[in-house]
Batch of 2 targets.
Target 1
Amino acid sequence: MIVVLRPGATDEQIEQVKQRLEQRGYGVHVSRGVARTILGAIGALDQEKELVAESLEALPFVERVVPILKPYKLVSSEAQPERSRISVGGVMVGGEQVVVMAGPCSVENREQIIACARAVKDAGARVLRGGAFKPRTSPYDFQGLGEEGLQILAAARQETGLPIVTEVRDVRQVALVGQYADLLQTGARNMHNFDLLKELGQSHKPVLLKRGFAATVEEWLKAAEYVAASGNLQIILCERGIRTFETATRFTLDLSAVAVAQAETHLPVMVDPSHASGDARLVPSLALGAVATGADGLLVEVHPAPEQALSDGPQSLRPEAFAELMAQVRAVAQAIGRCL
Amino acid sequence: MIVVLRPGATDEQIEQVKQRLEQRGYGVHVSRGVARTILGAIGALDQEKELVAESLEALPFVERVVPILKPYKLVSSEAQPERSRISVGGVMVGGEQVVVMAGPCSVENREQIIACARAVKDAGARVLRGGAFKPRTSPYDFQGLGEEGLQILAAARQETGLPIVTEVRDVRQVALVGQYADLLQTGARNMHNFDLLKELGQSHKPVLLKRGFAATVEEWLKAAEYVAASGNLQIILCERGIRTFETATRFTLDLSAVAVAQAETHLPVMVDPSHASGDARLVPSLALGAVATGADGLLVEVHPAPEQALSDGPQSLRPEAFAELMAQVRAVAQAIGRCL
Amino acid sequence: MIVVLRPGATDEQIEQVKQRLEQRGYGVHVSRGVARTILGAIGALDQEKELVAESLEALPFVERVVPILKPYKLVSSEAQPERSRISVGGVMVGGEQVVVMAGPCSVENREQIIACARAVKDAGARVLRGGAFKPRTSPYDFQGLGEEGLQILAAARQETGLPIVTEVRDVRQVALVGQYADLLQTGARNMHNFDLLKELGQSHKPVLLKRGFAATVEEWLKAAEYVAASGNLQIILCERGIRTFETATRFTLDLSAVAVAQAETHLPVMVDPSHASGDARLVPSLALGAVATGADGLLVEVHPAPEQALSDGPQSLRPEAFAELMAQVRAVAQAIGRCL
Amino acid sequence: MIVVLRPGATDEQIEQVKQRLEQRGYGVHVSRGVARTILGAIGALDQEKELVAESLEALPFVERVVPILKPYKLVSSEAQPERSRISVGGVMVGGEQVVVMAGPCSVENREQIIACARAVKDAGARVLRGGAFKPRTSPYDFQGLGEEGLQILAAARQETGLPIVTEVRDVRQVALVGQYADLLQTGARNMHNFDLLKELGQSHKPVLLKRGFAATVEEWLKAAEYVAASGNLQIILCERGIRTFETATRFTLDLSAVAVAQAETHLPVMVDPSHASGDARLVPSLALGAVATGADGLLVEVHPAPEQALSDGPQSLRPEAFAELMAQVRAVAQAIGRCL
């Protein structure tokens, strides 16, 4: 790390910082410029780098501390240069194939899910999505079917052979959802729920880690590190839009983050154009854009009758629109040397 | 609600929207303009307004649906025009007195807390803060002392008489923390943890609900409604900075939100200048600004030796600086007709 | 527009709002709900809708005014459903072809530009870009060659046949730049420079209107309306990234805005992945994503030796990397039924 | 500056960076860590630091360049530790007195301005504000009276003795407005209009530099440096709200920025609560918060009949409300050791 001192720092103050760093095992070089003295600290095998940085920044004569290394390791592409491939019930995510996961926002009933599962499978989707536990911003909204929803998803898997992905909302649900799902999803609002991340890290199921809508890419990767440090490296990242000043769309889909996360980590990165836009009319354009940008997969909401959906109707594609989109996704995937 | 149809909507489409609304109990008026047809729907006692709005927006000939009423009720100033006063271990928040809650970020050991409690009490603080369960963005950071930390806080209360506020991070901790604390705090990263909000709603202790750093005021008040709808109306709101493009401060303190939340609800609203700025040098200015804006209280981090703190050192005031600040807080509170 | 009154509005107050609207020529319908009275106003041919809305919102008993129509007309897809095609020195933007405009950030000297023009033309670019007047955030940075730069661009056009696009930074330069350029570009920082927009509206040259980095899509389209209302409908929009909390990229490219702007207006929409990311390593992914999303063209920075560029080196592609990218752009364009 | 190389940088690459820096006059120290090699460069008297940093970042083996010094000098508190006091027609801004500038958004007619000037003077305002050239986001809105408006302002000054502040929107107006105004204001949308900044730098009148609503504090201070570097150090900064995701207020007033700007520069910093909130009901709270935070002055919109204003009615205070506010401002100013 680099420690920049305020103008006028005394020799004693410089020495104080130097000693603190040396006590933690750092090699230190002091550069005295005309306007500032800076200390470069290298080499410590220090798990608590952030604490050291914070404690130095609390000194009144320290202007700022600039970290040199990234705050994640296990998930970084430096730690593992070759890209990870994660198996979701036998479907490999992170390879040549662009994997599409599709289905309704909420599991509403058995007929809805099985019809939807067949439709998305016919169109080329490889994994079925559906929510049994719904995080809703209003206490008066539909909260999901709970375990009954999980059973319905399992029945749809039996019927169609599609593995299933569904959300875990609460630490107390990890074991239960893990019994049914092939891929455990954490929602954007839970990316900073560190207790949940730890529980997922102790699960044996792969994890779909959605980016928090106000999380930087660095924070997203630190959340992935939480899961990894708890023992589970089967992590798929998913960009789903960030909160900005723009109100024309519900969130702003940040496709740059896909490219950045793929450069920084060895993990697959998917995109959810449905939650990002909140508008079914925009989903196809964004889905194609995501695939061309290099996303390893898509998470798309499909509902047989969006105007009757119990949640997220405005952003759900009808099955016909989804089938049409999949034909275009296939063409774009091939244009960049991948397949569907 | 107001439903705006797309240009060229047919008579059948207009009728379809009208009937859907009438079935839910709304009175409907259709206005046909040159460019748009709009439907005004009033009067339904409908818990599921958001679902109705969503299902209409999923219709391809509906341009948008504009809600008229706010999505919160129990906490609104329309439901209860007089301001609420919440007792925190006997200290009333929301009245004439500006209540300052102060202490270290993390409980580190018994001596630290008791010394700190005495210092902040002498300076005029009414409640002691301290974290036993710390939500840390890196898995390698100090995570708090857990129940031992709660016991230390209780000892400091016994010693000084100050009620204590501490954070609940996980649904599984609500009962435990409730045994020790006088005020249960939820962190900014948990404002959208709906299961936690429900558990807090079933607690008998008052709740300090921090605004999520990417939450609009409306979403914050919906989170308060979650707690209220689960049975607990002892809620104190706390603004602690939002995430913006600005990097000179860790977050951007949004004092307008204090004024808006006080106008929209009957709940007291506090301000946390320490987490907002992340910089002890800025805390005094922001604390004074918050009081003059009308905040009902302050949450301030104080640590006897910030450069040795296990968390948040850079934003912690030394006891002497805190005492100096409190003298100014007193003067500003009096200038606007309040007291400390 | 819809006028929502505060709870408890009296009959006289309702009548006052009604009369004000009727005096401006609106037909008004009053709906009295239990919680709110709302007035729907339709039909006025009113250029000053925003003023009327503002003056009503200034009344203490009015809660808010909701506009129904969009604040732009001439550029809207309602006014002209078929998409516009704009000729840039004979190259048509807005049709089947995806038009790529490429070249260095700044014009540095004649050799640089002519070499660069040849390279980008060979790779498939249709228009040459280059800056003669540079808006720099630091007063100590290189400010551009001025008219000499324009002459060099004109020489490159003569040499290669490529039309040229260059930025106008100041109202006093419109006439001068108009003598040389085929397409007048306004920078993101000038999108709200209304005097400049008016001057461009009186020019006979087409205009490339970059989105302000803190402008909503609606504000961007209002800026286009400024140009159009001043007499010039030859407008090409260009998305170039918005400012958000994310710091991994210089700006956040908002590809949703491409789809929204194409739905709302009849104007072509291009994308600038170079300024959005600020990082040459990310440009290819974003360029492909933009084309698949449906952008009508790309604006790409190319420099023969980025490490010697006088501006924007880190985001400039070397000619070989640009040629490689163009092959992929061609494949993606074909995959969605367009050409290069 | 600190140059961080990518992992695996070769000796030749390290040498290449070292030589480039030494050629520019920097002293260079190379630190080879296990994971990264970093170069510290100090001491060069280099006007073109940003260009050097950019050209190094364009090298593929350079990960990033971290600047050590701030990109502004003349306005910095390092260059001049004592705070500047700026005379506006004899009223000193930046001293003990909190200076309030008040008046209507637009100059509408002589009677309005003179009545308003008298009212704000009686309440304690020291400077009269009013717009003659209005930057409006819609081409169909009222654009201001132009020179006639300036003449009316001058008449109000003669009548009341209040100096006047008014906006310059366009480089071509600087000379004209300078003949009438005592303080030349640049609007938030022009903070990045570098040609205008240069013209203001060549003026002999003091400049009120509003922060751009999407500008970081650092960019704001760089804009001030533009004015200063062109020869004019009579600069007053003005915070007026930034654009965030929050929609409850028009902009988010960033009072932290006041404290940061006062620490970083020697310039006075004012606050405009009217444009920040866009809502007269919030203006008093924010005005008091600004004064307690340490602002050197306020810019407040006052209009005798806001519901008839030709612009910004909803955010304008009536004269009586302004007088009431001023009594509170006086009390808060005294509480922190200042006066009105």
Target 2
Amino acid sequence: MIRQRACTTLGLLALTSLLSGMSAADVRAQNSVQIDAPVGFAADHAARQAFCEARFTELPSGDAFREHLRIITSTPHPTGSAAQVEVGHYLGRVMKAAGMTVREHPYDVYLPQLTDDVEAHIVTPVAMQLNNREAALAEDRFSSHPDLLNGWNAFSGSGDVTGEVVYANYGTRADYRALDSMGISLEDKIVIARYGGNFRGFKVLFAEERGAAGVIMFNDAPEVEEDPYPDGPMLNGEIIQRGSVLTLNWTGDPLTPFVPALPLDGPVQVERLDPDEVGLHTIPVLPIGYNAASEILSRMGGEAGPEEWQGGLDLRYRLTGGPELTVRVRVNQPKALTRATNVVGTFEGSEFPDEWIILGAHYDPWGFGAVDPNGGTAMLLTLAEALGQLADEGCRPRRSIMIAHWDAEEYGVIGSSEWVEEYLEPLTDGAVAYINADGAVSGPNFGSSSSPSLKQPILDAIRDTPYPNEGRSIYEWWAERADDGVPVMGNLGGGSDHIAFYTHAGIPSAGLSSGGRSGIYHSNYDNFAWFERFGDPEWIYGPMLATADGLLALRLANADLLPYDVTRYAVDTRTHVNTLFEVAEFRRIEVNLDRLVASTTDLERAAAELDAARTARVAASSVSSAAAEAINAGFIGLEKAWLDERGLQDRPWSRSLYVSPDPFSGYASWMLPGLRYEIETDDPGDVPQWETRYVDAIDRLTARMDELTVLIREGM
Amino acid sequence: MIRQRACTTLGLLALTSLLSGMSAADVRAQNSVQIDAPVGFAADHAARQAFCEARFTELPSGDAFREHLRIITSTPHPTGSAAQVEVGHYLGRVMKAAGMTVREHPYDVYLPQLTDDVEAHIVTPVAMQLNNREAALAEDRFSSHPDLLNGWNAFSGSGDVTGEVVYANYGTRADYRALDSMGISLEDKIVIARYGGNFRGFKVLFAEERGAAGVIMFNDAPEVEEDPYPDGPMLNGEIIQRGSVLTLNWTGDPLTPFVPALPLDGPVQVERLDPDEVGLHTIPVLPIGYNAASEILSRMGGEAGPEEWQGGLDLRYRLTGGPELTVRVRVNQPKALTRATNVVGTFEGSEFPDEWIILGAHYDPWGFGAVDPNGGTAMLLTLAEALGQLADEGCRPRRSIMIAHWDAEEYGVIGSSEWVEEYLEPLTDGAVAYINADGAVSGPNFGSSSSPSLKQPILDAIRDTPYPNEGRSIYEWWAERADDGVPVMGNLGGGSDHIAFYTHAGIPSAGLSSGGRSGIYHSNYDNFAWFERFGDPEWIYGPMLATADGLLALRLANADLLPYDVTRYAVDTRTHVNTLFEVAEFRRIEVNLDRLVASTTDLERAAAELDAARTARVAASSVSSAAAEAINAGFIGLEKAWLDERGLQDRPWSRSLYVSPDPFSGYASWMLPGLRYEIETDDPGDVPQWETRYVDAIDRLTARMDELTVLIREGM
């Protein structure tokens, strides 16, 4: 890429010159290299940025990445274990040694206690205990660790139940409705459902609503078994997907929506809800592998299911087991207030310390967590060290760069949510972006999802990030694999630690990752032995992602005017309105959104003017600190135009009208979710009042852009 | 103890007062608590010291100790392994996070390459391979780690030899002479010797001198097997003691005596000896356990050995195997220049940065090394964090406190020796003390050995260090177990990283440790599983030792005048002269050491005057920095009076006339070794000339004390 080459060349020249005592400005004056300045940089800072970026890209180290991952994943360390406390200390020490100010943020949250006191049996026609632990393998020295647990689901109820079996396919809302329409009762039945199609908590919720006695979930076999572990990286019949089944209408601690679950031994006590009244699941639930599942499925005697319900095992998937087959599920899962601790490091900004670029990932796993989450954790530590080295060499960020390690994500995205609730005010005023890295490294396939205003900054950053061993940028590598040569940035949805930042606090958010083929999700085989063979054997994708994340963070931290792509708000909103029309058409509902479409047109105009004003301003002159602070407060405020204190339908904690997790599946993202809800629930009568709320939000966004344009132009 | 209580009370008062803005001096003025000031402190600094000590004793953390040990010992990490590089980085990060300045000190030294390509067989009358690896145990999750190695001895020769067997008891000089006198030839024989009685390298050296083809060494069985691992902490028949057999007449890198083995890729190249000419062993050597040893011993057909040669196995220990029994030993041990890296952290002294208190331990193990060495390593990291916290709270040391982690100790005490050679000049001018912590934590039994001038400071420090769960001090705990209620400080000898400091550079040195029952020395079972069951299950002895080491260091670092016990030089020298007479009597040799005895009497007088002058000086007034610096240079110079550039007999690198390792056994310490050597080698004719060298040294010491007394009195 031309820009990349220019930056690199300048960087090396600048480095040489710096050693001989010249300033970056001298270098720029002396060299005729044309700098294609990153968005938002005035000329004086663009030259310094080019120098710092060229040096930065040399710093993230594969050795460091490997070393951090090995140490962090040497023992199973789920939230609540002593080992996790140690890992937290390790993260703090590494960041402190890298030059960051480090703080631990403890919370006492309501969590399942670490136990695997679970069992499943076939009771009749044979007595057989079903395996619910991955085998110890000679090829995997970690697989025999004594601290590993059986398969279990966090926020299962406790109980010991025996009953006949009903197969519920993926256990989606549609699947359960199909069972209803076939007249198949779940009352006192053991539901068996395969993973996939939705968040696993909804499989349980819908079964519980129908009176089921218990739920067994399983990883379905692939149609054709390919490269099963340990010969390859993929699923085998023993692998069990652990996971939370928490389904509440807020994210975070079950007892403290809206407020942080501050420690019981701290100075401030928060009100906690009664755990019996928040609506936790009460029936026992557990997960098994497909070998164990086939013992149940092969003995089912009822009617065959629909063709789409047929899975990968070589047997007919039937709807009911019949009276001959009874299955027992026993789960003993005490819950209690439990310490969860986020560890947050900060490189304080030299000029705008209260403006924060936050990079984060959770650090709690189900077992060892080499991929999920600690590939991301090790990447962030590698990045912390690289940024520390860069700062030591004179490139200290103008805004604060924070690296956050969240606890208790696996049980319900809890650590990050409590932190956002605690720091909502400074985050609202000063958070520039949240960049997530959950399980971010497990292979060669780069990808990214983002809120609209960060999509272009990410694409710009990966244009200047080398793809290892390829002699080209990530962008070029990605573009080659895209349908029409243009990488498609996804829209950020549910399922990880950006939720509170993005949907509760209205902070532009994104996730970058480099994935690969894997069948060990949430299993005891997600460990260093798997990772060093299949995840990142050359230890190159971790440093690659650290470089991309770091370049993005450094531009957000050092730009004079924040480089949000404001035009994307209008473009993406139009796309989402079209999606609403498609959903409505699919559901055969008439909707009129003329006012929304019209407001989007005005937004488009305001965004274009704002974009032009910013470009003109940084091209014309340098920007004083005071001016930058005032203008950037305006940029930071834009995303908050989407916030509505009333929240979404039945979800007051979800304040963003722009995006939310799909309330009926959990993982997928819904865009313009207030309107989507009315359409999905076949309730077009409420569409006009929701359209009004959306038009108000877009008009707010337009007005803020116009004000900001005026402010920028005034200062010229 | 009274002093302890007074300090603690003052400490709490001071803490309270500090919070209310009062200075330590105010506190002292306001309170009538009588401070029994530690030796060498003027009143102003004594008050501050009491405050800092009271706070310090609260800081060393059992959780931190456990955590560091677990992380460091998660993988086998001998010198030369990739894991050891990672451990080095970890040590650096922890110390950096604690606020220390950290530097890695790399050396390229001549080392065996990491291989366990060794085997031993009975060839006739049966064909049987002898086991040379500890079994993987279900009770020990570490024992199956794939990076563990067979039993091997560093600096064995390479070769594949078969021959008849001779049993050499412990393989001491006396044992081999007994075989000589019985007319038993070792020519082309395989020598089998039990561990114990001397440094294992001498078992090989003496066998090689007699033409042996190879050596097998074994842990002998105890008379009565008690608590064998894994049921208890002690030896079992599979356990193999690895270890170096290097025997040269200097310590450190075999190719660079007197000079540091600076890295090949560094700016300065040092001359290296030809490895074929330094006198390394050439015959193959390996260690086995007693189960394997019994396979050989039980088949030996020769004459029974002397009664004292009978060991713990239930069979007759015979001198020769006879022609029916042949044994094969094969060792492939390539050697090459290999990177070894010390990691050294420094809290720079606020007032006397060039005066150093150095605490150290090696960090290279044979396998995991939970006891040897990393209990000490984890203790030092815990201490680093406590001292960092203390400094953050305002108690920064006046002199520099350094914490050093040495590499390649197990192969021949190499990392520390190279470092002392590299920094000999600043160490000579400024090193106040070296405190060693090799494998320092493995149980409840506190003990300490020291050079004379540090014995009393150590006893003082442990009077003020709580013994955990006992409500009394270490001193009291130790005194109860001593013969007449007085703890006996040992004399420091060979075998660990104090050697270069003490015997080459003349720096007062000591070792403190807390040991226990153990049979897993240098075996694959020296791991975290053993340690958490038998070493320090409550994680209390590591913090205890960190507290004792820390108090000692803080007093040496903060005293106005260094608190060396100068009177002990004379006391101990007298004791050692008496030992010489006893050895001479035992060997039936007449010696006259009248001049030595007389010089000791004058030393006694000078020491008493110096001690009194120091006491008077600090009692009279505060001591200016300039005065302290001049006087303490004199104190630091005292120990160097023992140095003689000519060195000891055949050991020019051993410059201290006061102490050396026993040249015929390696581990034990010889005091006044120049004279001892002449007596032990039955050569009384050379005693007078050696007595002259000793009288010269003692007279130098006396003269330096007298000069120092004058200097101290002048300033009053």
